[in-house]
Amino acid sequence: QVQLVESGGGLVQPGGSLRLSCAASGMIFRLYTMGWYRQAPGKQRELVARISFGGTTNYADSVKGRFTISRDNAKNTVYLQMNSLKPEDTAVYYCAAGAGADYWGQGTQVTVSS
């Protein structure tokens, strides 16, 4: 079965950086669009960034220029490099596989606070 395991979350000060990783198994990773989503308390889950199997990327306006999504098909892993973090980036970050976000990881908490 498909498994997605996120890691790399934590507490960081405003202006800091974190890199999230999502390791996938049970799927032909290179054929899947992969995405990062986030959900802040009291808010709906939203798309943060997505990368197609061909490497095309798209980002939420709120993170453009600060976040970078990438993938390593040899390692079955997708990454989210987050720079210049803001308190409003605080959320649980989820990895999802498939153009329709068919499979989800368990999430990793990112807290941006001084």
Structural class: mainly beta
DSSP E strands, number: 11
Stretches where pLDDT is under 50 for at least 5 consecutive residues are none
Q: Based on CA inertia axes, which overall geometry fits?
A: globular
What value does the average pLDDT take? Answer: 97
Give the termini distance in whole angstroms. 40 Å
Largest sheet: 7 strands, mixed
Count of alpha and pi helical runs:
0
The radius of gyration over CA amounts to 13 Å
Question: In which range does the helix fraction lie?
Answer: under 10%
Which range does the strand content fall in? Answer: over 45%
Characterize the quaternary organization of these chains. single chain
* Helix and strand element order: EEEEEEEEEEE
Task: Give the tags.
0% helix; globular; 11 strands; 4-stranded antiparallel sheet; 114 residues; mainly beta
How would you summarize what this structure contains?
With 114 residues, the protein is mainly beta. 0% of the residues lie in helices and 50% in strands.
Note down, in words, how this protein is organized.
By secondary structure, the protein is an all-beta fold. 0% of the residues lie in helices and 50% in strands. It has no helices and eleven strands. Strands 2, 4, 5, 6, 9, 10 and 11 form a seven-stranded mixed beta sheet that branches. It starts with a strand and ends with a strand.
